[in-house]
Amino acid sequence: MNDMEIVFPGGKRVDALWNGFEIRTDQPAGGGGEGSSPTPFDLFLASLGTCAGIFALGFIQSRGLSAEGLKINVSFERNEATHLLSKAVLKITLPKDFPGKYKGAVIKAAQQCLVKRTMDNPPAFEVTAG
After folding, report:
1. Is the sign of the CA dihedral 43, 26, 18, 61 positive or negative?
2. Which residues of the chain register pLDDT less than 70?
3. pTM of the predicted model, to two decimals?
């Protein structure tokens, strides 16, 4: 099992230490934090978009195509009753002059993202304390 350490540096900050990186999170000022870093939910959405992005980018680069102008916008809806994510939409803006014959394939590549696939088949969660 891989271990990521979560630390509490003060205020509403909760950070993750992983492979030599410090991944900072905070809550907005209205939520008691300082707004110094993205919230954990912001990072969750960013992980969806960046993971899909690396797959889309890899597809484009593997075909020797230009990635200039490539971007992904992540939109989402929350269930008002549960406050949980109910829908996420990843809209890929393709590079100018991107061959139309590859549009479906680049979408399929982005869908292979490990974060999305994990959401499609969620893991078991176990929380313990000691």
Report:
1. positive
2. none
3. 0.90
